[in-house]
Amino acid sequence: MSFPFALTEVVEGRARLLVPDVPRRKGPGAKGPHPFYNPSMTVNRDLSAILLARWPGKPTRALDGLAATGAWGIRMGLEAGVPELGFVDMSPDAAVLIRLNLERNGLRGDVFHGDLRAHLAEKRYDYVDIDPFGPPTPFLGHAFHAAPTPSGLGITATDTAPLCGTYPKACQRRYIAHPLRCDQGHEIGLRILLGYIERVAEAHGKVVRPLLAFAAEHFFRVHLHVLDGLQETGPQAGYYLRDREGTFHRVDPREPEAIGPLWVGDLGDSAFVRSLAPSEWTSAAGARLLDSLQKEIGLPPFFVTTDEMAKRLRASPPKLERFLTTLRAAGFRAERTHFHARGVKTDAPHDVIVAAFLDAAASGPTGD
Known about the structure:
With 368 residues, this protein is an alpha/beta fold. Helices cover 36% and strands 22% of the residues. It has 13 helices and 15 strands. The protein has helices at residues 42-53, 71-79, 92-104, 116-122, 137-146, 160-163, 168-175, 185-203, 270-274, 284-296, 306-313, 320-329, 350-362, and strands spanning 7-12, 15-20, 61-64, 84-89, 110-113, 127-130, 151-157, 206-216, 219-228, 237-242, 248-251, 259-263, 304-305, 334-336, 343-346. The strands form four sheets. It has a seven-stranded mixed beta sheet with strand order 5-4-3-6-7-9-8, with helices on both faces. Strand 4, helix 3 and strand 5 form a beta-alpha-beta unit. Helix 1 crosses helix 10, helix 4 (116-122) packs parallel to helix 5 (137-146) and helix 12 crosses helix 13. The radius of gyration is 21 Å and the shape is globular. The termini are far apart.
């Protein structure tokens, strides 16, 4: 079997995969003529495998919607035990490579060469994964139109620059939402993505409930339960303003410069997320991310950063652990957030946060 590119073997999770042997860089990578494989997305597939193995009402038919080398679909079979696997990709070379990788890993699956949107109109799955090169928006309407209820949907977005406010006009055009470039930009971007997904679902008579949504590397990832819109409560969208103190306030959508619409609900199901555990195939980076997500799940939207508070209060930033300890000693939850290296999520009111920051800053060496 010959391909117009060289192959090399990689081991990812439990899978042994043949992938195009091309130069790669860390981050989103560059799209080329060959089936795309990005090792930077391993942490995405690590967490996805953990989730899918514990998915409520375990899926029996799952689709790797933009499959490329088939890496994620093959891990669905090997690590999550999904018995019926489907793969779709536009590239005929990708379809051949996926069949080769299935055989190398002792799995069977249905491989289709064509457009994912047309495929979703013909076949039904109880879990569909959409991981495009760029925004997922072209596929969402087709996915929700086809989705049975209940079912599962995994979505990745790599267009983080528009969602995080670097290109606000692109965000407005693509997600019909107003972002904000700030320290909390990644959480805002993830909530814009979820808010847009929710509106598309609603247009198709469905509602969504995030089992887990997070940001990592260069992407956003959401895992959703898709439910019947006639039997479940309606949308959880809202708008916010960020004041000079860095505090977010819920506002009317007509407010000038309002951020949103945003998903204002939880970024995951707390009990489900806390029940997860790394598998023997989870990378160290994947295990660290899961630990961070489990600690901060259930805390309110948005967070403070010690950098911002130090600048505003004209004080040196305290050690992050001392700041966290001071907040907890005052009787509140406080955790590092995966969204920012010096970010703290807490349920403490603003005046308590400021007092804890100044107390922590005054009681010892500063910085992290």
